[in-house]
Amino acid sequence: MAAKIVDVLVPIALDQAYSYRVPAGLTLEAGDVVAVPFGAKEYAGVVWGEGHPRPGLHNKLKDVIGRHDMPPLKPELRRFIDWVADYTLGARGMVLRMALRMGELGPARERVGVRLAGPAPKRMTPARARVMEALADGLLRAKSDAAHDAGVSVGVIDGLIDEGTLETQVLPQEPVAKAPDPDFLQPDLSPAQSKAADTLREMVTRGGFAASLVDGVTGSGKTEVYFEAVAENIRQRKQTLILMPEIALTAQFLERFSARFGVRPAEWHSQLSPRKRARTFAAVTAGEVSVIVGARSALFLPYADLGLIIVDEEHDAAYKQEDGVHYHARDMAVVRAHEAQIPIILASATPSVETEVNARRGRYTRLHLPERFGGQHMPHIEAIDMTREGPPRGRFIAPRLAEAVKIALERGEQALLFLNRRGYAPLTLCRSCGHRLDCPNCDAWLVDHRFKRRLVCHHCGFSKPIPESCPKCEAKDSFAAVGPGVERLQEEVAVLFPEARTIVLSSDLVESVERLREELDDVAEGRFDIIIGTQLVAKGHHFPKLNLVGIIDADLGLANGDPRAAERSFQLLHQVVGRAGREAGQGMGYLQTHQPEHPVMRALIAADRDAFYDTEIASRETTAYPPFGRLASLIVSGGDKHETESFARKVAAAAPLDDNVRVLGPAEAPLAVVRGRFRHRILVKSPKNFDLSHYLRGWLQNAPRTRGTLKLEVDIDPQSFL
Ligand code: ADP
Ligand code: ZN
Hints:
The chain is of the alpha/beta class. The protein folds into six domains: about 100 residues, PriA, 3(prime) DNA-binding domain (GIY-YIG endonuclease, 3-Layer(aba) Sandwich), CATH 3.40.1440; about 60 residues; about 180 residues, P-loop containing nucleotide triphosphate hydrolases (Rossmann fold, 3-Layer(aba) Sandwich); about 180 residues, Rossmann fold (3-Layer(aba) Sandwich); about 60 residues, no CATH class; about 90 residues, Alpha-Beta Plaits, CATH 3.30.70. A seven-stranded parallel beta sheet has the order 11-12-10-13-14-9-15, sandwiched between helices. The chain has a six-stranded parallel beta sheet with strand order 16-26-25-17-24-23, with helices on both faces. The chain has a five-stranded antiparallel beta sheet with strand order 2-1-4-3-5. Bound molecules: adenosine-5'-diphosphate and zinc ion (ZN). The site of zinc ion has 8 residues, from loops. Adenosine-5'-diphosphate binds next to helix 7.
């Protein structure tokens, strides 16, 4: 019997589903997407279950307005939403909101096409003749295409429509993505690649949950190999989700996909137009999209029949969402695969420590691709000890690195100088009084951006022109730049290599994704000799003429107190250095460092990845850091310093006593003020087999409530400790 009352989860910041009456004539099942009134508004919510009869309340309940014409959310997805909400302590409604990104579809905007139909116009002109000729085949074309093909303006086309020479007709909607062909272009795989591909194909054919790690250096063919699993999943007529950390920069990936499968995949990311988003959403739910490449939010879509998830560059920090629902898309992808009982493939050249441990323990099947495809060697890496052979004062490129760049240029090759610092200099101070220019809203120095002629705060975006005199002692022209940023590095490069064509690639200089794609293509085609870049150049791109990579400050990432600092540095440096020597010649990497004996540097130099993981895993084990223990952060912030601090202390004091749990803090966050808000952190540590989410929920129920400007955020498995 159909329910008379249903519980409906609404996509707003609430954890509970609310009861509604089902009006006569409407039959509802769990998962149905329904329109319901909530407060003064109408929402699209989801029937989460059958409501309990509430005799006294029945007449106070509101009615469901109606059912949306879309497939119901499957039990697999509803369980997943519950799981994510329980684990992250995010409001269930907010997790649901990530799954219901259908947008406002509205009536489809019809596009009109034209075709040749009637007699020639009475008054013939050369332009009109060209149109008649271009459309002689009688086929339907978009108006703009017709104008383009004939080399005339749209006005000429309109004139011919008025004359009755051309007729108009509504163009059929183009599908969001065409069907990929699993056999479009099959590569010849190397023996190691074949073996890995076979295992993956079997996993897909067998179905059910299974996790594997495709582990191989950059250029070993990881993508090529997991494409075989995608092909098999397409043959099974199931949907594939490929998660990517930075979807805007995946032009090369889309090209490779279409080379392998004949068409481009569908895309899902924040830069889709509302219309494209709505159409893609509908196509995903209807099963009309076979493969979707997406950013982390694609994980929550209501796939009609998801059969395989791939997480490319699984170690990437961009998978962690740091606002709203704090979740890690890689970890949650494993959960979704488990709920849906389908295989998942993680791929990386430098797996996260978590994944490496899972692979070592046999929970994930490791598929190892030991070498670069085509026999290219990994770059040879050397340290430049900055304490002994550093550059002269005020300069940042050591003589040995400069010499290597010179040789590369003589050979007609490219060099990449990597410095993960945007702008000209990270700090500006007054030479006469020592005053440092800092942000009025944040606990941070202002960064000098000379290209833009402004001082910028990297945390809140505040910016102002560089002042003429010191705001403190009023000395004129007294500012000195301290430390290098990519812009300053370019100055030095211009002095050292005046002939070289250089480009600075840094996210703050990116005008648009298209422009960046063009610039990257220019680099790949050899139109620049020296590339000076931040993190932006670290991933994904293939620069055939690049054989030399110089890391200007290899210690940079190790400096902060983040427990993942070593892991992050290792991954980033490995990835950047791995850009060298991908096509021909021997790649070379130089690490400018003050700590050549640091385990990260030693492992990179010896090309001994396992040595790094051994040390890192051992250290996490002794300190009971993830994955050997659990961590959560509570971040308290507010507009008033004292109020925030005392609130943070009260929250910490409310922590239930439990021998399993250590509560550290509250302490002022390393970034103590951001956007005028004061921040305190409480770090919570527990053993691995402890339900930390449950503990936190109990704690927060009894903690003082936030009020005014106070805010309390929960971050399970924190990745950032700022
Ligand atoms: P990874 O994902 O491990 O960095 P890719 O899959 O991108 O490696 O492969 C690196 C390069 O080698 C790509 O240009 C790819 O097309 C090429 N490649 C890898 N394996 C093969 C193969 N079996 N046949 C042809 N080209 C391959
Ligand atoms: Zn600021």
